Amino acid sequence: MAWISNDPERGFFGHPRGLAPLFFAEMWERFSFYGMRALLMLYLTKHFLFTDNMAGFIYASYASLNYAMPVIGGLIADRYLGNRKAVMLGAILLVCGHIGMAFEGSPAQVIDGVVTREGHYDQIMYLSLAFIIVGVGFLKSNISTMVGKLYVNKDDPRRDPGYTIFYMGVNLGSLLSTILCGWLGETYGWKYGFGLAGIGMVAGLITFAYGTRWYRESEPPNPEKLKARTAIGLSQEWLIYGAAILGVALNWQLVQNHHIVGGLLLSVTLVVVVGLAWFSLAQCTKIERDRMLTMLCMIALSVVFWTLFEQAGSSMTLFADRNSDRSFFGLIVPASVVQVFNPLFIVLLAPLFSWLWVALARKGMEPSTPLKFGLAIIQVALGFGALVVGASVVGEDAKTGLIWLVLAYLLHTTGELCLSPVGLSMINRLSVARITALMMGVWFLSSSGAHYLAGIIAGLASASTDGGAILSPQESLPVYTAVFTDLLIWAGGIGVLVCLISPWLKKLMHLDAADMHTDDKNSKAA
To answer: Which PROSITE patterns match (predicted)?
Structure first.
């Protein structure tokens, strides 16, 4: 049988044919997303001359809203639009956003100590980010859901390998875009880097539309109701499209008012935590309660990890730009391209880690989920430790060797491989069945909060002034070193503590056979 054919069941390397367009659509969507991630912080500080502090908050608002919107996009798709229409809408909005980012205007100038920007190009940038945020909201969760629906039998052994193939598209898109968009943007002009990301998204949109005939169970749940006219003369479907545009307008304002985003995230988090705590204490059996509270603890630890990990797109990128000697065999690696080491190490090490966990499990030595979380936090802390060590051995130019950034990204990636693959699995295993979907939403909400906190920390590492001036490498190095040292100490301490209490957390998860049997009986009795 050919590796790729029109066979709907086994037309893509033995997997359903619909996996191919979903794979390439996700690859191009991630290409555009990580192209933005590579360039955004540098674009804000170099083109618009925002201070590091202000740029950090803009980045925080943008990144956190990117992870909050999929919860809403998923709900709209489940109840009204269906996955396919939601992904198409998201892709179109993303294309609009990336096209907008290509309109950069002239660089900002400092006149009499005041930063002056041309026209309203900063507002065009904010609006473009808003289009991208809402677009990701409709696309991100729904395209992943569509992969699972390709496999009619829930026990199909191809399901997990299918998701593995799908997520290789994520890493491939990230790897290519960080190199190409970053290099183009810094070498020839920001509009070319952002423009290439937009071209990638257009390719993703075309690829996704081409595969429509192979998708399963992705149409609207009630198509007649969706197309029926409402009291104001528009169909429900067009009302949703209109609401999406209103969502863009709302996010246009939110992305430039970070204090509102922070307040909203804090308010929602408090409501969710209080609600889940009440549910755990009042509505659950003892074992369910233990699992729920343990899961909340683990989600909080994931926030710690991702807050530090996401310094890659902010403070670590600025550190690479200002305090790193990026020469590599006679070539100067652009600061944005340095981020490529994370997806590169993912591609190289993910198969090794997958094999390692299986091998350790066979010997009864696989670390528990809490221990993996603790090890992940320790490794991300040690990554900052590598930068601190590198900063201690610099010459008169106050620039560290590229090897220290490579080592930092290596440690951050090994930490990611300890934590990220087990996160969603943990939600599925520990959630009370009747609120599993809600807990998935909480998991995405935690990522949103982590990205916001990451921007705040990036702001603490500010090495610029309100007048648009950047500190010299000799002046900025102590600023970065102080922040990275604090991250090393605090995260390292948290990671060690988690490792020490991991046996207790593992016990509270009640995942051994006896406890599972007891839990089943308790659930039936309840």
So the answer is: PTR2_1 (PS01022), PTR2_2 (PS01023)
What fold does the segment set 305-430+471-526 form as a domain?
Growth Hormone; Chain: A; (1.20.1250)
Residues 6+ apart with CB under 8 A from 249: 130
Average the pLDDT over 308-324 and give the result: 93
Q: How many CA atoms lie within 13 A of 195 on its CB side?
A: 11
Q: What is the 3-state secondary structure (H, E, C) of 176-215?
A: HHHHHHHHHHHHCCHHHHHHHHHHHHHHHHHHHHHCHHHC
Q: H or E element: which one contains 511? A: none
What is the DSSP annotation of 26-85?
A: HHHHHHHHHHHHHHHHHHHHHTS---HHHHHHHHHHHHHHHHHHHHHHHHHIIIII-HHH
Going by their DSSP bridges, the two strands 324-325 and 400-401 should be labelled as: parallel
- Rounded to whole angstroms, how far apart are CA atoms 137 and 212? 20
How far is C-alpha 171 from the geometric centre of its chain's CA atoms?
12
Q: Is 173:27 a contact under the CB 8 Å cutoff?
A: yes
Question: Does residue 156 or residue 342 have the better pLDDT?
Answer: 342
Q: Which residues contact 449 (CB under 8 A, 6 or more apart)?
A: 64, 265, 269, 303
State the burial class of residue 337 (Cβ atoms within 10 Å of its Cβ: 0-12, 13-18, 19+): buried
Beta carbons of 69 and 136 less than 8 angstroms apart: yes
Per residue in 423-458, pLDDT tens? 767 777 788 877 776 777 788 788 889 999 998 898
Q: Which of 307, 319, 285 is nearest to 433 (CA)?
A: 285
* Distances in whole angstroms, Cα of residue 366 to Cα of each of 97, 374, 418, 515: 44, 14, 11, 19
> What would the pLDDT profile of 228-261 be if each residue is shown by its tens digit?
887 777 888 899 999 999 999 999 999 998 889 9
* Angle, CA of 86, 88 and 89, to the nearest 5°: 65
**467 φ, ψ (degrees, to nearest 5):** -85, 10
Fold for domain 18-279?
Growth Hormone; Chain: A; (1.20.1250)
The residue type found at 466 is D
Look at phi and psi of residue 49 and say left if phi exceeds 0, alpha if psi is from -120 to 50, else beta: left
Contact 186, 193 (CB under 8 A): yes
Domain layout of the chain by residue ranges:
18-279, 305-430+471-526
Question: What are the DSSP E strand ranges found in 233-352?
Answer: 324-325, 327-328, 331-332
Residue 4: beta bridge partners? 12
- Condensed to tens digits (0 to 9), the pLDDT of residues 69-121 reads 888 888 888 888 888 999 999 999 999 999 899 898 888 888 877 888 887 89
